[in-house]
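Summary for the steering committee. The consortium agreed at its last meeting that each partner would contribute one worked example illustrating the joint modelling workflow. Our contribution is presented below. We chose a case with several input lines so that the handling of multiple components could be demonstrated. No manual editing was applied between input and output; the record is shown as generated.
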Amino acid sequence: MSTTTGLESNQVLLDRVARRRRRQRIEQAIVTWLLRVAALISILTTIGIVIILVAQSVGFFAEVSVWDFLTGTEWAPLFKPQKFGVLSLVGGTLLVAGIAGIVSLTLGLGAAIFLSEYAPEKLRRVLKPILEVLAGIPTVVYGYFALTFITPILQNVFGADRVIVFNALSAGLVMGLMIMPMVSTLSEDAMVAVPRSLRDAAYALGATRFEVATRVVIPAALSGIVASFILAISRAVGETMIVKIAAGATPNLTLNPLESIQTMTAYIVQVSLGETPQGSLEYKTIFAVGLLLFVMTLVMNIVGRWVISRFRQVYE
Amino acid sequence: MSSSKITTQNRQRSHNVRFWRVWRDRLFVFGFVMAIVVGILGLAALLFDVLIDGLPFLNLNFLSSYASRHPLESGILAPLAGTIWIVGLTALLTIPIGVGTAIYLEEFASKNRLNRLVELNIANLAGVPSVIYGLLGLAVFVQFLFNGSRNVTAGALTMTLLVLPIVVIASQEAIRAVPSSYRDAAFAMGANRWQVVKTVVLPQALPGMMSGIILALSRAIGESAPILIISSLVWVTFVPVSPDSKFTVLPLQIFNWISQPQHDFRGIAAAAIIVLLAVLLSMNGVAIWIRSKYQVRPEQ
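What follows is the complete predicted structure of the assembly.
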């Protein structure tokens, strides 16, 4: 082989490398842009939600005053005379979410303490996935369970004349079961993060496991526990199918869990299933209720995450 | 003499205190165990309830026929096909967008204020109730994009937005778990950022992403509220043939049957629930299996 051809082939090689480099740079530039567009979609979703809810609600609040909406206690937009007091829907929502909160906090916190402080690793590995199955069951199935299993039990316990078929208690209990894994997983994560040395110090002073759990671990993990609870309640407030199936369709400002109620979500679904013409005042109500629901859950979620980040103890 | 009496008293008291503390400990262990037992019993009761009600109605005919006015002739062919359409289209849209967003945030984006806003925004979207997505889909996709047509594409687009945060967050975690030494090694060999992502980060993060994607898709299968708002039509007796067909999905059909007054419809609702749960639990099982199989990460 002569030197010239060697040099030429070197040149060819260099050209090829340069071309490949350029192709790779262009590929990277294109991909970067595509990825940026993908990330943009989530922003557009939020903007879309806010615009849709606000735009339709503005039309609603042009005809119904915000004050009447937020302070009225009677909700009857589909009957004459129409009444637009959203408090009865909010009350129903909070009643069910409150029941679900009590159930999920009791069960979830108990489960979290057992899993993090008592259970041997092997048992923990079996129990956790079983509990997490609860979180993966569709809400329509929970609705069926509430209506066909829990409600008859409640009627047996409290008497069929006192318990209406569609009642807040049944929906709330089942919803509590549904969000229990959320409370237990998040709380347990917070407890596991408490360092071994804190527990050992308490044990060395002669504390029992219960004392270690309640006086050392829970205070140290409190922010995570509180946050898990707030996020779970927010989930309960936004839950739709269980309450639509099992809690009834009667807007009702009551504290009696054996009565029929209607939640904000159930109202939205009820109207969109009906024949309400698009653009009518009744149609706009679902966006006004949706806006209120959106704001409520957003505030709870922000507070929940703020609690986690603000009060998190950082251990070495 | 008196001092030894005091000591005995003290010993007695301290014994009592210890006795009480030990028993309180045992009592509460029982309570904590009961919390888990109640949760598991609840799950067992739910499955039992559904199986007892539904099994008598479950047969091949049930899977291959359409909904009917008569419970015993009803089947879930249309909702089953609709669910497959929704999941297929949602997967097609969610996987590239969700994984892309995660890659962008973890590997490409500088940690500036805008990108932190994107992350915060995704965390917030994950907490937005599903009915709100239904309202968004109704207004944007059904009424604006498809001019009032309540078709399967509108449903899939809405589901995509709903489950996107799940995919993004799971993918971000999977990407973060890839040791940075792997990236450094690839950079040191002259790879550019996209090459590092394509050849090093993605293959390593794939199992974690897969389990997130499967969980997101099983959420899309089980979710009914947004579909209920988008396709208020729940009486479908045909299989969707194109992306602009009308459709129903399994949870929606179940809801429809639960709402019927005749008692036998409850039975076929339960039978449809069995099918739905079988699909979902096996998907969850696969996700858990993937997670546990690949959970052991190489040394950092």
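Chain B touches chain A through 87 residues (CB under 8 Å). Residues 121 and 258 of chain B are 36 Å apart (CA to CA).
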